[in-house]
Automatic annotation (TrEMBL):
NCBIfam families: PRK08203.1. The lineage of its organism: Bacteria, Bacillati, Bacillota, Clostridia, Eubacteriales. This is 8-oxoguanine deaminase. Pfam families: Amidohydro_1 (PF01979). The keyword Hydrolase applies. Keywords: Hydrolase. InterPro entries: Amidohydro-rel, Metal-dep_hydrolase_composite, Metal_Hydrolase, MTA/SAH_deaminase. It comes from the Bacteria. It comes from Acididesulfobacillus acetoxydans.
Length: 397
């Protein structure tokens, strides 16, 4: 099959999985609790957290991933996206890095503490730097840059507008969280007098160069008027945080661009792309029953759907002239016995989510579930030590 395409992640969160202080909480209290850990992020933590997430993604069939990094702690270098990019090159995954941002701190009416926000000047300057240094718009590019203010409750309208102007001037895509929870909707109505979708429409943040994470709480009119904007559906995260269920079938039937994503590892809590495909199928059928998307349609969303959302027509498909981003599966195991449709097997069966082989840009990077480009055991040991040091430092402070 063509490799899976993951359209929304927060790789740094692989350092903060299973934090007891934030379990069983909805989005806003969950974020408020985790900001206090995230303010201790370092370049080393960002690099190793990316390697952990990339390793999981590659082993479970993802060949192209985006990431949304928006935490830049005070006192740390502002070049954390560079550390992610270095990790992507070292491990061999096709990568869309998004320069996330938070400029609206708690003291200014936003949600995050002042310790993890930046000035708008800092954000825009670094955004322009990253585009100039790294963005490759050519076919088969291994690295592209997008601009990604975090959310309506953590950035100003001015930053959204100036980011849009910069992105369209430089020809890069834009990304943000949108319509994830009813709390977000209430915040937007209270602060801006607009629903989240209406705010994006006002700011000219709709179109084929935009994709949104979640897109759960759209009304009927909004679902059919996405204006080419893509949606990253994050089933596991939405279930764990009790955010709601994305209107997946309705988006597809309206001609919208739908994709599947793992979201951040603190809310998923894994980066298992194949499992996310299964959960997308099951959650869709929970909502739509016999009118839900079938196995083939879900696999299409997970591959070419993701490529389309990220503005790529050179991958996400098995065809002449397309990128050699390919995943192979062995359906001879007993867990697949008795199933008469291989596509149903891939979506509904199996005791493992590890591919037989993952090929990125013509290079074998995973074979029999083992990462070939780096030592995943050493990555895990180092990452675990860094993560434990950060969490214990916060708990002892």
């Amino acid at each position: 099959m063509p490799g899976f395409v993951n359209t929304h992640h927060h790789l740094y969160q692989t350092m903060f999985r299973g934090i007891k202080e934030v379990q069983e909480k909805p989005l806003f209290p969950w974020l408020i609790g985790l900001y206090e850990f995230w303010k201790y992020l370092t370049p080393e933590a960002v690099y190793y957290s990316a390697l952990v997430g990339f390793s999981e993604l590659l082993r479970t069939g993802c060949t192209l991933t985006s990431d949304h990094h928006y935490v830049f702690p005070n006192g740390q270098p502002g070049t954390l996206i560079d550390d992610q990019i270095r990790a992507a090159k070292d491990i061999g995954i096709r990568f869309h890095a998004t320069r996330g941002s938070m400029s609206l701190g708690k003291d200014q009416g936003g949600l995050p503490p002042m310790s993890v926000i930046q000035t708008e000047a800092q954000i825009l300057e670094d955004s322009d730097r990253l585009i100039s240094k790294y963005h490759d718009a050519s076919d088969f590019s291994m690295l592209r840059i997008a601009l990604a203010p975090c959310s309506p409750f953590s950035v100003t309208k001015r930053l959204m507008s100036e980011t849009k102007d910069l992105a369209r001037k430089r020809g890069v895509m834009m990304h943000t969280h949108l319509a994830e929870t009813t709390d977000e909707e209430a915040f937007c109505i209270s602060k801006f007098g607009r629903r989240p979708y209406e705010l994006m429409d006002e700011l000219e943040w709709l179109g084929s160069d935009v994709w949104f994470a979640h897109g759960i709480h759209f009304n009927d009119e909004e679902v059919i008027n996405l204006k080419g904007s893509g949606i990253a559906h994050c089933p596991s995260s939405n279930m764990k945080l009790n955010s709601g269920i994305c209107r997946t079938s309705e988006i597809v039937k309206a001609g919208g661009k739908l994709s599947i994503a793992v979201d951040g590892s603190a809310s998923n809590d894994g980066s298992n792309m194949w499992e996310e495909v299964r959960r997308a199928y099951l959650l869709n059928h929970l909502k739509y029953g016999t009118e839900g998307l079938n196995a083939y349609e879900i696999l299409k969303v997970a591959t070419r759907g993701g490529a389309d959302v990220l503005g790529r027509n050179d991958t996400g498909r098995l065809d002449t002239g397309k990128a050699a981003d390919i995943i192979l599966f062995d359906l001879n195991g007993i867990e697949y016995a008795g199933c008469h449709d291989p596509l149903v097997s891939l979506v509904c069966l199996g005791n493992s989510s590890l591919t037989k082989m993952t090929i990125v840009n013509g290079k074998i990077v995973v074979k029999d579930g083992v990462l070939l480009t780096l030592d995943s055991n050493e990555i895990g040991k180092t990452a675990n030590k860094i993560a434990n040091d950060i969490v214990q430092y916060h708990r002892n402070s």
